[in-house]
Amino acid sequence: MKLPPNVSEADFTAALKEFAAVVGGQWLFTTDDDLYLYRDSYSPMWDEADERTASAAVAPDNADEVVALVKIANRYRIPIYPISTGKNLGYGGAAPACAGSVVLDLKRMNRIVEIDERHGYVVVEPGVSYFDLYNHIQEKGLKLWIDCPSPGWGSVMGNALDGGVGVTLAPYRNHFEAQCGIEVVLPDGRMMRTGMGALPGAKTWQQFRPGFGPRIDGLFKQSNFGVVTKMGFWLMPPPENFTTGVVTIPRFHDLIPLIDIIGRLEQSKIVQGLWMLSSPTTGTRGDAAHGGGAPKIDPAILPVLTDPDGVNMDRLDAAAQAAGLPFWACEFNLYGPKKLIEAQWECICDAVGVIKGARFKLNEIRKLPLPADELKSLFDVGQFGIPSLRTFGLGPMVSYEGEDVVGHIFFSPVIPRTGEAAIEAMEVFAAIARKHKLPYPPLQFPSSIFERAFLFAVGLPVTRSAVVNAKIRDVFRELVVIATARGWGEYRTAPAFYDLIMETYSYNDHALRDFLGTIKEAVDPNGIMSVGRYGIWPRHLRDAGKNGR
Amino acid sequence: MSRRTKHCLGAGVCLLAAGGWALAQGATPPSPPPADMQAAAGGKIFGKWCGDCHSTPGGSGSQALQRKYRGDIPDILEQRTDLNPDYVRHVVRHGVSFMPSFRKTEISDADLSLVATYLAPSPGRADRVTKRP
Hints:
With 549 residues, chain A is an alpha+beta fold. Chain A has helices spanning 9-23, 32-36, 63-76, 130-140, 156-161, 170-173, 255-267, 288-291, 302-305, 313-323, 338-352, 372-377, 419-435, 466-485, 498-504, 507-523, 542-547; strands at residues 28-29, 56-58, 80-83, 102-105, 112-116, 121-124, 179-185, 191-193, 227-234, 241-249, 275-278, 328-335, 359-362, 366-367, 399-400, 403-404, 407-411, 413-416, 453-455, 458-462, 489-490. Chain A folds into five domains: 9-105, Uridine Diphospho-n-acetylenolpyruvylglucosamine Reductase, domain 2 (2-Layer Sandwich); 112-234, Uridine Diphospho-n-acetylenolpyruvylglucosamine Reductase, domain 3 (2-Layer Sandwich); 241-368, FAD-linked oxidases, C-terminal domain (Vanillyl-alcohol Oxidase, Chain A, domain 3); 399-492; 502-547, Vanillyl-alcohol Oxidase, Chain A, domain 4 (Orthogonal Bundle). Chain A has 17 helices and 21 strands. In chain A, strands 5-6-9-7-8 form a five-stranded antiparallel beta sheet. In chain A, strands 10, 11, 12, 13 and 14 form a five-stranded antiparallel beta sheet that branches. Chain A has a four-stranded mixed beta sheet with strand order 1-2-4-3. Chain B has helices at 9-18, 35-49, 51-54, 60-69, 85-94, 109-119, 123-131; one strand spanning 4-7. Chain B is mainly alpha-helical. Chain B has seven helices and one strand. Chain A: GO terms for molecular function: D-lactate dehydrogenase (cytochrome) activity; D-lactate dehydrogenase (NAD+) activity; FAD binding.
């Protein structure tokens, strides 16, 4: 029997018996076969001694059962680790952060508690996936859109609690920022509601975020201080139309004014859809909108892109000029009434037009929804608020260092939303990729998914070879050092790196980590809740965290 | 006017997944349903959990199988006639390549058996395959 840390076999046995009495024996999992399902399929520590595996898993059906389970865990001081749909692949999956934790599997709690078309919100339980919510809205014929990440089997709530993002309009893309109202079971088993939900019979729980007094919703992001059992989210009305508009600019360093101009348009709420950078020199999308297909790479450009010493941007700039290709393309997703899209596009053209040589193309404005057959043919449909799993078909890394790739982890730094930072990040991360022979395209681009900063996520391959995985962990650590030295921090990471990343947030001798530790001791004195998640440990288990750094 | 609905997906999924007769684990099973009902129920579960990756040529699972078998056998699982139910159960519970494992809170043992039966060679299955383009 695998035991939780600092828990006797007698206590664990007694607790398991009480867990089973709450949920029914069939929803308590303790056999090796069943616990295999609570391993992280994308773990970069697979089968190593330090792989973090569960001692048991228990799956409640409702919030009352969560209350009962948390009270039992608190009494026996058993660490519990809530998961929602458990499909947070690349960031931990269904496995705990602290070996021996009991996974609290909330997938069975899959009710859409309330959905309100008039005010545009939904209240969900943890087990509701983006597929579930989308299908429910379609079946009921509700005039609502969701913002979903790829892939769609993720939990609406769990994705938000882990800082996840989507791809439609800016106010909805950052999922934790789109939440309004949380119901949470605290580590002592007491249930609490945040915001207006603290008022019995409140009529505006999902309509007014600030509530009364300090706004504490953020404390429950990452589930360090409680098990979230219900959460409200703001939804958007379906846009009438969609199109993309493509801007091209000729020179490499034109990126700097371009990002500044787009930033002002976003801050003014004129640009609200996602926009994607690409480079016609590599034939990537964006330019495709100009000619109905990705252009072939010019024979004069190819040697520059495939230079074993890396892409020299000055040479690439000159080669692009010689070939008559613009260096950058930027594709804007535009939503709404036709006249709004046209007005937005006019504003974009006016603003970006100050860059010499900028060219513009607005594609056909399409009425939504698009025909089903057309949607089927698209690589991704997330921009239409439709969940899918198509992201898994995106440029799979088949092998690395002679080993089959079975998954990925993400290095996810947030960098300034400037052309200078984008250029610097492209160069430094490309250098690491070359050094370690990572199978990436010659140019990688920052994502505009956040509103005021870039995300520069780098996927790293995971294999079933301990040797190769150890190398990848070293690469990850190298990336963290490089990013931290430049003032770039990660917004999210896999459990293997929770402590490493928390260590980088060290301003004033780790004041943030110490403050979180103080809250942890006050709210969770027995140290049972999501132990080790994102580097927050109870006092009696902090050595485990130190070992993880 | 505000449209509010309260809906239990748990019950909804259970009915959808197993055609109204799937049992919670641990309950006493009644007589097995007719084969066509089993196939229909298995097909619905397959569609919910597997279809996005494995039912179309562009699905990420189909792409992976194309890379693996290079067209020697169909990329789309419903067109395969060589899928042993035990193998299907093993892959769902252990994952393969990029496909992760699936927990019993996602696909119960009962539902997994229906999927495995749905994909297994059978006279009905042959009919299904021939109907596909």
